[in-house]
C-alpha cells in the first residue's frame, strides 16, 4: 500500500535545523519508507542531510510519499507535523 500527499510547510523557519531533526525523527518512528520531495528533488525523509538539502522554507509545498501498511496514517501524522510552526516556542 502506498500513499502520497502534498503539504504546505507552516514552520516559520521551514525545515532547517531543529524542525528538520524533529521531522526526521517523526518519519523514522513510522517504520515505513517515507520520501519527501520539493520540486523535482526527492529524498529519504529519515535522512537529516537529505531533508535539509531540499532547502524547504515556510510556505513551500512538499510532497510526502509512504510505502507499506499504515501509509495513510503515517502521512496524516507527518502532514500535521509539517503544518505546525515548531519555531513558535
TrEMBL record:
Entry's localization field: Cytoplasm
Keyword terms of this UniProt record: Cytoplasm, Phosphotransferase system
Transmembrane segments: none
One GO process term, biological-process aspect: phosphoenolpyruvate-dependent sugar phosphotransferase system
InterPro entries: HPr, HPr-like, HPr-like_sf
Domain HPr residues, every copy: 2-89
A GO-annotated cellular component: cytoplasm
A Pfam family the protein falls into: PTS-HPr
Keyword Cell membrane: no
Statement: the UniProt record of this protein carries the keyword Cytoplasm: yes
PROSITE patterns in the cross-refs: PTS_HPR_DOM (PS51350)
NCBIfam families for the chain: PTS_HPr_family (TIGR01003)
Name of protein: HPr family phosphocarrier protein
Lineage of the species this protein comes from: Bacteria, Bacillati, Actinomycetota, Actinomycetes, Micrococcales
